[in-house]
Amino acid sequence: MGIKRNKSALLKLSVFKMKEEKEKKEEKKLFVEWAQNEIAVVPDFHKQILFSDEAHFWLNGYVNKQNCRIWSEANPQVYVETPLHPEKLTVWGALWAGGILLQKL
């Protein structure tokens, strides 16, 4: 992280996130504490956890701003007009102790 900070300071650029992540920090801390307590009671508890996520890929070239970082000296406030219902491909995936699950929706 120090290298990233030094590099951005050297270039005088900042990262602008479209969604603030700091508010999720407390939720993540509570989840870790809960999981540690469960593991103390059931040693194989970690084998029962399934982590999943999904991503949307627009076929017209639109980029999801939630997953995109724009490096600039100033916040660009970029707006891109897109069709109301563009064609997209949704991919769902999950990780657990038994392996990886993937599905195209």
TrEMBL record:
<dbReference type="InterPro" id="IPR036397">
    <property type="entry name" value="RNaseH_sf"/>
</dbReference>
<protein>
    <submittedName>
        <fullName>Putative DD41D transposase</fullName>
    </submittedName>
</protein>
<dbReference type="GO" id="GO:0003676">
    <property type="term" value="F:nucleic acid binding"/>
</dbReference>
